[in-house]
User: What shape does this take?
Amino acid sequence: MATLLDLAAQGDVATVEDESRLSSIKLMTPQQLYELWERQPWSAHALDLTRDREDWASFDDDERADMIWGLSSFFVGEERVTTQFSGLVMSYEDQSEEAYLTTQQVDEARHTQLFARLYDEVMDVGGGIDAQLERVRADLNDSFVKLFDEHLVEAGRRLIEDPSSVEAKVDFVTTYHMVIEGTLALTGQNFITDFFEKTGKMPGFVEGFKKVSQDEHRHVAYGTWYLQKAVCERPELARRVQDKLAELLPVAAGVLVPAGKDPFGEWDLLGYPSEQINRFAFTALSRRLKVIGVGLPAVAA
Ligand SMILES: [Fe+2]
Ligand SMILES: [Fe+2]
Assistant: This one.
């Protein structure tokens, strides 16, 4: 079995051909990403979730347990990344970057609103967002809590303390954009969306979740742009990115494992085997590191 850590320990999956192509990719600037945001508007409150409520009742217990775990991780995750983003907004280096960063924070708030509607109108967990979050926290695994409540919060705190610190900004973007968004969120979105699309169920939520994915791709594009720029200006920062990844990948590997399943054995999410999920996550990360110009960290599998 290949866990996320095994794959990191084995080395990169990108081929030599990929390498020359990826290292020459021209990334979108914060100004371009801001303009793209203006062209991609959507409303979490305009989605029709009527069919979704009927569909939710039709899933079997195992499917529902996997979904509750995955969706609760997203719900709490979206709240965490909204709240902890303020330090990064404070760290802007020019007006275009400031404009882009404010859009990302409001995107994360909108994602939280989508999950609040899903839990309230489809899954019968209401009472307002604060009460909902308190309740769905019971569905999370320990690795999730460690990554979002400890590592992310600490990275945000250090950036708020000194928004001009490039080291704090590199640590934050590596944690937030590379690990949480680029490795975990895009992977979860891919498999959950694929499952719903195959079943033809939950059309309102799927429409919204695809918009979340579209937003997340812009977010990860910003993180990739920032780290590439930082490493280009100060090559010694590549080591800093690697060290942060080496610290976080063991935790991230645990975040992907559904509650109640053995993290050291074979597991599956909605019928997708752990090997496939880990490989998807790792490929996404390793390709982005190539673009940034950072080698894979040495991690013990
Ligand atoms: Fe988000
Ligand atoms: Fe995001």
Remarks:
- Residues 181 and 216 are 7 Å apart (CA to CA).
- Residues 166-199 form the longest helix (34 residues).
- Residues 4-292 form a domain with the Ribonucleotide Reductase, subunit A fold (CATH 1.10.620.20).
